[in-house]
Please model this.
Amino acid sequence: MAVPPEVETRISELREAIGHHDFRYYVLDDPEVSDAEYDALVRELRGLEEQFPEAVTPDSPTQRPGGWVDQTTFAAVQHVQPMLSLDNAVDLPELEAWHARIRRIADVGYRFVCEPKVDGLAISLLYEDGRLVRGATRGDGVSGEDVTLNVKTIRSIPHRLALESPPAVLEVRGEVFMPVAVFEELNRKQGEAGERLFANPRNAGAGSLRQLDPRVTAGRRLDTFCYQVGAKEGGPRLRSHWESLEWLKECGLPVNPDIGCASDLGAVEKFCAEVLGRRHALSYEVDGVVVKVDDYGHREELGATTKAPRWAIAFKFPPEEKTTVLREIQVSIGRTGRATPFAVLEPVFVGGSTVGLATLHNQDEVARKDVRPRDTVVVRKAGDVIPEVVAPVIAKRPKGARAWKFPTECPACGGPLVRLEGEADHFCVNFDCPAQRVQRVVHFSSRAAMDIEHLGEQTAVQLVERGLVNDVGDIYALSLDDALGLEGFAQLSAENLLAAVEQSKGRPLPNLLVALGIRHVGRAAAVELARHLGHLDRIEGASQEELEAVEGIGPVIAQSVRRFFDSKANRVVIDKLRATGVNFEVPGGGGAGSGGPGGGGLPFSDLTFVLTGGLDGFSRDEARAAIEERGGKVAGSVSKKTSYVVVGTDPGSKLAKAEQLGVPILDEPAFVKLLEG
Ligand code: IVH
Model:
């Protein structure tokens, strides 16, 4: 069948694009597109070539392993055997199709070895008579770069094999990577030094290995897992992959401890799901699972194409990074007046949800990342972490894109935005700013504060815009007519809103303290103030010294509390709340000395908590402090020993793990109840 001209054009476009992205990825360590986008191009090309086999040329990217050699910086070396690549499966049907394919070639009972696919850089290590003589990158698969000196700085790679009589020649393949903790630490330091941040551990790892000065590599604490025996002369006869991994360990080479065996496809799928579930609990980044036929005899029957072996497949996880266009940068005003820049994005589906907005934290963060309006940017949404703009794709920057300047005026009230010396944040200092008013109302009615159902942000905006609510004290003066006048409210919903407002009057004192939004007073401090002083009037009347005498209250919190109650505007609000009958006291009067822990030790001693997802009323640190003050412990991962898992919004894999192990799960209100004993 002749190849239609439009198909030919598309094929050459795809080949050119893939070549370009290979160069960015392998040579510059600075990819312009996510792996998923790259894979989509390769798939499209492969699809067209399958349809029109006469269009296949020997130099098509589908016919050779991708990759480049950078000969201007490192010497090129020939690989003893070509380093092949892997075919991908992006979902279970594709994995099952691969399984069906190999069963058609040889209908035998395959056993599989499943390995987390570490997102790093492939490496070839050559040992002669047990001595490490060469380390090389994969390059184009046929020849790579000689990075021997750099490889020798990686601690987990032995310079000598731990064998009494080593084989004459042994070539081992594996993955060099930067552990996530090392990456985070490196970026923290880069940031402090005002240096460019690395986009992800893979780029940081690749950049570190391909340093001309090995001392730089040595300082980057790279690690390695070996996963394949290549050329080998001498040594034991190896009959299966599993056996070879065991032998690599005997050689003293690092092998990933998370590798597992699977006796059928069902077990393979279970393994993949399990690794996906704890992907963020691993100390290294994974982007999938490599599934390999175990038996070397079976492998031989299956063979390889020029590009990849048929006996292995990479089961890829859904991508957590994508590129999209940053439309503009806006600033939002919080209840304290803090002005936070955020990116308005072309919506993009990433990490399991559609992301349209991403925080940019503050001015320095925008400058450090150098993201500009109209830039194409890499967006990351991983696990329970909030969406983040990782970096701009400089190569795609439109002409004339200017660096973003922090606005000098508040977008809500037009007042000045002020950045105090030594502070990272800008603030709108106008206490009457409508945006701050709205956010104070939203915070006041949030779940961990006064928990007023039906009073969310949209309603708060209307209440403030119509002048019905100027401060949180006005919430309790709302009439049914006021509520009926709001957009989206009918008789029943208006009645519900008023009932919720009424009901909130009885919330415990710590909730009221949190609701007032006193700077530095989180849940833990609120609980202590309520427990020791027992009544809002007593807290209001306490001197700085009396406040500091309360357990867990230091000078910073004490001063902030004093400042809050010294403000006339705040006292007016408190008076309104008092007049409408909002609860100001701890049942039984509370007060100094009462309610303290009894003789039986602290209430949470022997309890271990794990936190996952975002909480409304606490930062992570506050939640941790509240637990620890009560004698409890906070752990990073869920095990059978975990007493409770506290689950907020967008929980991570820890929730699934808790469910699996039957660990009790607390939502925020239940956690608050437990804190209050
Ligand atoms: S096996 C012929 N095993 O994935 C087999 N590769 O997409 C070749 N990778 O270039 C590779 N972890 O950089 C294999 N356990 C693992 C791996 C792994 C990560 C990387 C490797 C390779 C790429 C293929």
Residues 84-86, 115, 117-118, 122, 138, 175, 227-228, 290, 309, 312, 314 surround 2-(butylsulfanyl)adenosine (CB under 6 Å). Residues 592-600 have pLDDT under 50 and may be disordered. The chain has six domains: 5-63, 87-316, 320-426, 431-504, 509-579, 608-676.
